[in-house]
Amino acid sequence: MNIQTIPYVQAFKPSDYVGQTIIVIDTFRATSTIVAALSSGVKCVIPVKEIEDAKKLWKPGRILAGERFGAQIEEFSLGNSPVHFIQTSSCRGKELILTTTNGTRALSRVAQAKQVWIGSLLNARSIAQRLHVENTSNVLFYCAGTRGTMSFEDCVTVGAILEEWRQLDPQITQSHTSFDDLSLLCMSSFQFLHSQDQLHLLRESRAGKRNHSLGNEEDLDLSLKMNEFNVVPTYTNGVITASIS
């Protein structure tokens, strides 16, 4: 068993995903938004890199959503807000076209991978349960990061999933499992913060502070909730759909 963590978008190489189950993480806020949207009845999410690409995909029955550097794109109906999807039913049954600063760029780099899931604190246990049930042997956590560096919140989210998995299968931390150092750091960081009831400290990350400055407090509150939803979003052929764990 091999477990690796890629710290930010640009650190990923195409050769990284050969034979891997990839879990993409952008806690503040893209993957939290995707999890919340699918859990709230959105039919599917179509992630795209560029604003113009998103506009070209729009048609009746689809909704444009996205942000750049935390702020909603002016011409779009929605931003990148997980809270919106649990507070309204207006998107239920519709297709969501989403473009974000980092998260959807990470997804674009793994579009050809065999198995890609979307992870967040909101569905950490569900991801872990799927890893356990499928007896997954090679796992790559791909973090979006912030402006070309590792994000505190993404690191801790990786750790949350690993800890939930460890609770289901203690053997993943035994000597036959190969954790890279960053994955070990992620798990240790989560274990410490969670044991001290200190997950709120993730607000002090760069992305957390930026979202605070933009008035996205409700999104931060929701994104920091553990195991709020039991969905495992799966990215296949350019589209993210939900399966229930």
From TrEMBL:
Query: The organism sits in which domain of life?
Result: Bacteria
Reactions performed catalytically: (2R)-O-phospho-3-sulfolactate + H2O = (2R)-3-sulfolactate + phosphate
Which cofactor does the UniProt annotation name?
A: Mg(2+)
Name the EC number(s).
3.1.3.71
Record-linked Gene3D superfamilies: ComB-like (3.90.1560.10)
As one GO molecular function, the record gives: sulfopyruvate decarboxylase activity
Q: Which InterPro entries match?
A: ComB-like, ComB-like_sf
UniProt entry keywords in alphabetical sequence: Hydrolase, Magnesium
Q: Which Pfam families match?
A: 2-ph_phosp (PF04029)
Under which main EC class is this enzyme filed?
hydrolase
Q: What does the sequence similarity comment in the record state about its family?
A: Belongs to the ComB family.
> What is the protein name stated in its UniProt record?
Probable 2-phosphosulfolactate phosphatase
